[in-house]
Please model this.
Amino acid sequence: MRGGARGRVTSGDAGANSAAQSQGVSVSVRQACVRFDQVEALAQASIDIAPGEFVSIVGDSGGGKTTLLRAIGGLIGLASGSIQFQDAAGAPLHIGPRDIGFCFQEGRLLPWRSVLANVALPLELEGIARGERLDAARAMLERMRLSGVERRMPAQLSGGMRMRVAMARALVIRPRLLLLDEPFGALDEVTRIALDEELLMLVRESGATAVLVTHSIQEAVLLAERVLVLRGRPGISQIPIPISLPSRDADGRLTVEFASFCAVVQYELRGGMAAAS
Amino acid sequence: MSLRKNFVSIMLLACFACVIACGEAKQPSAPNTPTRIRLQLNWVPETEFGGIYAAEFDGLYRDAGLQLEIIKDPGGAAVPQMIDQGVCDAGIASGDQILQLRQQGGDLVAIYNIFDHTPYGLMMHAAGAPETLQEVWKGAGNLAIESGLPVWKYLGAKYGPTTRAVIPYNAVTASFLGDATIASQCFITSEPPLMDLAKVPIKVFSVSESGFDPYTVTVAVKRGKMPDEVQRKFCAAMQEGWRRYMADPAKYNPDIAKLNPAMSAEVMNMGAERMKPLLFTPWTQAHGLGSMDPARWQSMIDLLSASGVIKIRPQPESLMSNMLPPKPTTPK
Amino acid sequence: MKRAIAAVLPPLLVLGAGLLVWEFAVMVFALPKYLLPSPLAVADATWNDRSRLLAGALQTALASVGGFAFAVTIGVVVGSALGSSRTLQRGFYPLALLLQMVPLVAIAPLLVIWLGYGLRSTIAAACIVAVFPVLASTLDGMRGTDAGLREIFSIYRAGRWARWWKLELPASIPSVVTGCRVAAGLSVIGAIVGEFVSGYAGDQAPLGIVIVASMREARTDLVFSAVALSACVGFLLFGLVSALGWLLLRRWHASSVKEN
Model:
């Protein structure tokens, strides 16, 4: 049930193929500490994420999940420790805005722009010409079967659609690292399940490394190859749990393996072994 | 009369609308105590009110059993309306204001007149000034006048529209000094003496040149509000005050200047000099300072009616009353 | 169509009732015309002097619109500048506030000295009174830009110009429109106060001069006419701003858009 804490992990389930794997980056987090005004938000976090791996982070509120994610994404600085990136061959990488895609719970679409213009925004800010970037945006929307709402405004969309548009925007630049901060937290269960499936498919297609912060144990187990449990405030103890499921599609939730992995994660969340770690 | 005065008038009128339901103010009517008279000026204390103040300083009102309260105005009070509404017992109003208020439902009566000829005029720099009022009216350059004064409407009717650019009259001497061709409205005791003092050569064209010569500075009351006896005493005191003032303005001006820090006694003396020919005329020599000729009122009514300024033409006798002592006083 | 009638009818009824009460009050209290003219007297005066009043309204409208246009331009530019730099804001916001505090009646004669008589100083007067609401609302709108959206822009390393043009300015439009609505009415007031001191009289005398002249003649009915007309000018400008605001915001802002 509990595999090695660090190092490479093989995911035995069908999913990432080696060609796409070369797209992702590896992330090495070493003893990362984050402090906000003397308050420690993240303490000595360490994890290695393989290229193209899908990792999920769960934990108590305030336990540093989002902080770790944002630190990886470069949105906040470390008080101590380091975060480094490498490509599939192991060569060090500098990660820029072209390489990271972010998805936030609120979606964060510009309300005064159409769906198409919103999706094209990252390319626009990079300076890409209008025709080119709109074509890329259209293509992305088509892949996600969102072409029908190209001209709509965000206010006219449902919550689920807005989230998918946000995902399209994050993916339009073909990022090598996808960071998601409780993206489906505001949505209802049914929508959530559908979006989980779509997210998994998109990530596999792109081959990017994905880190998903979520409150939902089920979601974490279904999507991720490894679940990182952050316990305590700040997340002092981190327990990575490799997940191996026979199937991760719609029926995946109905398998026994799924239930038992969920139990494991829950167990760890609630304290794990009696001894404090 | 400045423009700021008219702006504040609007505010005051708004307040009057609230005063309506309160009805008319009552006069104190105890026969043995001195009769109180609130006199509302339409400008700050100046040469044009010199005689009124002289009578006050010499105690003439008190001797007549009157207690006069002179209320000065920095410019802005709608005095005719205030008299009509009873906010004050008497006030300074011009004949054309009394006539215009009559058109709008008011009912004032002039009881004492100060200037026998109108003190209004157009003032220009002496250099390059033309000969007649009409030439000024039809000249080129700016014309700074108070819009709404019937005299300008009358001039427009008589000479045709002015060819000058009409700008507001702000009583700001800077605009006059900085403009070589400007023709500015002036009041004989205000702007010309200031220019005299500043040694700026000017030429003054009296408005009366055009034939329009209303009684411009009168003391008016609301018909029926002030008992005849009080009016007589009041006018007698004022008449004597004016006689004394014009005989020796320099004696009273320093005290008036104390009430008006913006103007020096020296300028007031000059103003009094300019006033003399407008006060001492054949009519006033025959009938006494302060008296009025109904024919002059009629002439004003005729001229303003002909130029379309007024519609209702009251009888002159309803606009004025001579409450002066029967014997005319001779000036020294 | 029915909805339009339903919207317009209530205020019209209230207005009509108000006019009736007014007429009645004047009759019952036998108020003199110079104190409070009846609505009929005002209507009569308006009709008789209609060409002069309309010409005046046109002049005042020109000054108001001109001043408003300047106020919006200056307000948005300066507001944006202050909104983008804390230092600039600390240095200049108190000065802008000072401008707002000085009463226009005091500045107006100075404007005449600096800019001369006529439209130039009346436009300046209108602008001075109207600029602050636009400035403050632009500043507010920019500072209130959603932090989440700001982060998106910083994730993609957007430059300062892009941030202002593509994020802060569009985000502040609802606030700016509100500020402009306030400024519309104020610009009419500013124009009229300016006209008291600097308006050219004569045939094309603006409403401010008409008011002043009518006051001098005890023609309160004309004063009411002029005031009513200036209110109309204000309404028109306000309506224009609201319509423009609707156009800009209708597709996306909660105040205008209909959800599907």
Chain C has ten helices and no strands. Residues 78 and 143 of chain C are 13 Å apart (CA to CA).
